[in-house]
Specification:
Aspartate Aminotransferase, domain 2, alpha/beta, four-stranded antiparallel β-sheet, seven-stranded mixed β-sheet, 14 helices, binds pyridoxal-5'-phosphate
Amino acid sequence: MSKSDDGTRPPWHFDTRSARCGKDTEPSSGVPTSTPIVASSAFEQADSAAIDLVFEGGEGYTYGRYHNPTVAALEHAVADLEGAEAALAYGSGMAAIAAAFRALELEAGAKIVCARDLYGATIYWLEREAQRLGWEIVYVDFADRPFTAQVVRKEEPSAVYCETLSNPLVRLVDLDSLGPACRDAHVPLVVDATLTPPCCLRPIEHGTTLVVHSATKYLGGHGDVIAGVLSGSGELIDVAKAQRSLDGTIVDPFTAWLVLRGLKTLSLRFERQCANAARIAAHLNTHHSVEQVHYPGVGRRGSPREIATLERLYPHGNYGAVLSFEITEASADEPARFLDALQLWGTATTLGDLESLALIPAMTSHRELSEERRSYMGIVPGLVRLSVGIEDADDLIADLDHALAEAIKGP
Ligand code: PLP
C-alpha cells in the first residue's frame, strides 16, 4: 500500500519521487490472467493496528521470509493437486526433505526405517543428520512388500521414508501396503514423489503423511529453477512453516512463479515423457548391447506381481519417465564413451526437464556414496540413467543406438 498524496503534504523533490517510484499506480479494473510475481521483501498495512493484527496471525502479509502472495499461490496449487491439507514451497528439493524431517521433531535415539534405494544426496544428508542427532537408520529393500510391512511393525520406528519410484533404478514401492502398515503403527510416512508428479500418483490417497518433491524436476519441468515443495498433514505443515520462517528457506517469488507456470502443462508434458520412456525401455530391452533395463514392468521388472501393483497404483499407465540400463559387458570406459557419443541427449545432472538427459549415477547423482554402498544398491559403474523428455521418440532412439554402437566399437 503506498502512502498516496492526499494534498496535505508538500511536493516531493526528484530524489524522493525517484526512490518511491512505481508505488502510486491506480488499481486497475482488470484482473491479471497470469498470477502476478510479487517481488517485495516486506508488506505495508494501512496502519499500526493492522500490522499488529497480521503479526497476531490474521490475514495478510508482513515479511517475505515468512510468506509471499506468489509463493502462496504455488502452495495452494500444490496442496490442491496433491489432495493435501496444506503445502509449503522451499528453495530446493533438499530443503523440503530437511524440512519434512525437522517437522517430525525426532529425538535422539529415534529410529527411521528407510528404503535402501534413495537419491544419493538424500542418503548423504540422512546419514550426517543421523550421526549429529543420534538417529538410527534401518535400510530395507522396499521392493519386498510383505517384508517391509513386517519391518515397520517389528522395528516400531519413529518415521518411515522412501521414494515412490527410486532414483536411479526406478524401483517401485507399493504404497497400498506401506501406507496402512504405517497408519496402523501410528508412524509418519514421508515420501519423496519427485519421479511421480501428482498427475500420475497422489501419495496422500495411499496413506502418506508428508510428500516431498524436488520441484526442480517435473513440477518446474523446464530446467530453469531449483525449488522444492512439501505437502501433507496441516498440523505438520504448521510446524514446518514456523521453522521455515526462521530458517529462511522459502522459495523466491520468481522461482515460485516459474514452477506455477510449469504446473499448468504438467500432465501434457509428463504423459508424453512417460510414453517416450516406455518406448525407449522396450527398445533397449531387446538391444544386443544392453544387459539390463530398469523400468517398471519391463524385462526382469515384468513379473505379474509388479505389473499388478503398477496397474493398481498408476491406473493411467504412466510409469515414469526415468529409466536406467547397463551396457553389455561394459568395461570402465564404455559408459563414458556412450555419453560422449550422444548427439541429441544432453548429459547434465538433473531429470524431469523437457529435454532428454543422460548421466552415469556413479559419477554424478550417487558419487558421494562409497563404492560398497553403491554396489549394495545395485548402482554398478556401468549403469546409465536416462531422463526422457518430450522430443520425438524415434530421434531419441536413433541417438541412443548410435551412441551404443560408438561405445561398443571403442576408441
Ligand atoms: N529427490 C530426488 C529423487 C532427486 O532426484 C533430487 C535431485 O536430483 C532431489 C530430491 C533433490 O532436489 P534438489 O536438487 O531440487 O534439491
